[in-house]
Amino acid sequence: MDGSVAIVGAGIGGLTLALSLHARGVPVTVFERAEELREVGAAVALSANGLRPMDELGLLGELEAVATQPTELIHRGWRTHDRVTAFPVGLDGSYRRRFGAPYLGIHRAEFQRILSGACPPGMIRLNSDVVSADSDGTLTLASGETVTASVVVGADGVHSRLRGLVDPAATPVYTGTSGFRGIVPVSSLPTLPDPGAIQFWMGPDAHLLHYAIGPDGGEVNFLAVLEGPDAWAAGPGPASAAPGTLAEAFSGWAPAVREMVEAVPQSAHWPLYTLPPLTRWSAGRVVLLGDAAHTMLPHHGQGANQSIEDAVVLADLLAESDDHASALALYERIRRSRTRQVQRSSLVTSDLLHLPDGPEAVARDEKLGGLDPWLAWIHGLDARAQTRPATVTG
Fold it and tell me: Where is the FAD-binding domain (predicted)?
């Protein structure tokens, strides 16, 4: 590709794209509004579809050194510690042999540190708030500075400013569910079965997801998701909830669940959004990536992984062509179907995880026994393989 790429947002997707472009010799600059890189959120689960690109960038070893490989993926009901399903995903090596990369739980700050540390000096511009963009590739910063690039990538998250240029009518939709987060030392969870596993506890109007993080698996990251509030009026970000909201929601649940949510002070809660399919992903020289293009619920742990897939596909196509319009159109065609499938599946899963006891919950538990194909279609995709048969004229 002739010319430079400007990326707005130094999150996981933006930094992965920057490193992928740099590795292919494309000049790139990342504009980040924050004065320092500080990821919001506790941790992230990285599945094989997100980690194979990290291996190609030479970063997998660093990630493994500060992460935990889960032992199993386990689903449990809400009343007892009994297992509903269990699938090996870690230490026995079967997952890695099957999908070509491990499954890791890692603190978001560690992941961002490794990604940003791999960027050459000057690639990331902090304290650079992009307030507007034009379809000709011109960015205007809050300082008044203007920058022009051959391609501008909006990797600026669920509340993307650049999305308004690409699809002005597209607005994230609050799903009527909210999430609480926490990190708990394993030593504070004496009744927790299988602390090294990724686990879902499913029950009426709520669920709890957790997995170990850190090099020794000594901490457990959890996301507790509740139905409500019916409307979110507190602004786009997290907000305080009434004291005791989280503990009350899990009253009567299994001992390990109550132990976990009560082990740390109640966090703020986050509104959980989804994004209806966009009419298009690009306008002129501006294109969207990650949550800016396809915000999805976290119930498959695929937000970060889908952003990574976007990044490596877009990097390949831009590096191979001087015709940015053809490259961006092909990027959208490749990624649109995939991300919509994962979005829809995450939405359906939200309802299934919150079923009350009864026939529907029994049917759900029976279907979870066939989870293996689900793992394969999400975790088994090699995103870069999708660009290899494609040709982009330029």
Answer: 4-344
Helix segments in the chain, DSSP class H: 12-23, 48-56, 60-65, 94-99, 108-117, 163-166, 245-249, 255-261, 291-294, 303-320, 324-353, 359-368, 372-379
Residue span of the structural domain in which 20 resides: 5-67+103-172+275-353
Q: Is residue 13 part of a domain?
A: yes
- Name the E strands within 204-316: 206-213, 219-227, 269-274, 282-283, 286-288
Helix axes 372-379, 324-353, angle to 10 degrees: 160
pLDDT band at 392 (very low <50, low <70, confident <90, very high): very low
Would you call 211 a catalytic residue per the annotation? yes
Tell me if 190 is assigned to some domain: no
Tokens of 60: 């997998």
- The single-letter code of the amino acid at 11 is G
Domain count, the chain: 1
User: CA 244, 264, 352 angle in degrees (round to 5)?
Assistant: 65
Starting at the earlier edge strand, list the strands of the sheet with 219-227.
83-88, 72-76, 198-203, 206-213, 219-227, 173-185, 269-274
Burial of 259 (0-12, 13-18, 19+ CB in 10 A): middle
Q: What is the DSSP letter of 386?
A: G
Note whether residue 130 is domain-resident: yes
pLDDT digits (tens, 9 = 90+) for 240-296: 999 999 999 999 999 999 999 999 999 999 999 999 999 999 999 999 999 999 999
Hunting for tokens 């690639």 — which residue is that?
Answer: 123
Amino acid symbol at 365: D
Q: Note if the pTM is more than 0.85.
A: yes
Per annotation, catalytic residue among 95, 103, 211, 273: 211
Return the structure tokens found at 126: 């902090």
Residue with tokens 């940015």: 324
Residue 244 resides in a domain: no
Planar angle of CA 353, 359, 365, nearest 5 degrees: 45
Question: How many whole angstroms separate alpha carbon 296 and alpha carbon 298?
Answer: 6
pLDDT category of residue 121 using cuts at 50, 70 and 90? very high
Residue 225: strand pairing partners: 179, 207
Q: Residue 304: give its domain's CATH number.
A: 3.50.50.60
Q: How far apart are the first and last CA of the chain?
A: 9
Q: ω into residue 229 within 30 of 0, thus cis?
A: yes
Helix axes 12-23, 108-117, angle to 10 degrees: 20
Q: How many CA atoms lie within 13 A of 200 on its CB side?
A: 22
The rounded mean pLDDT for the chain is 93
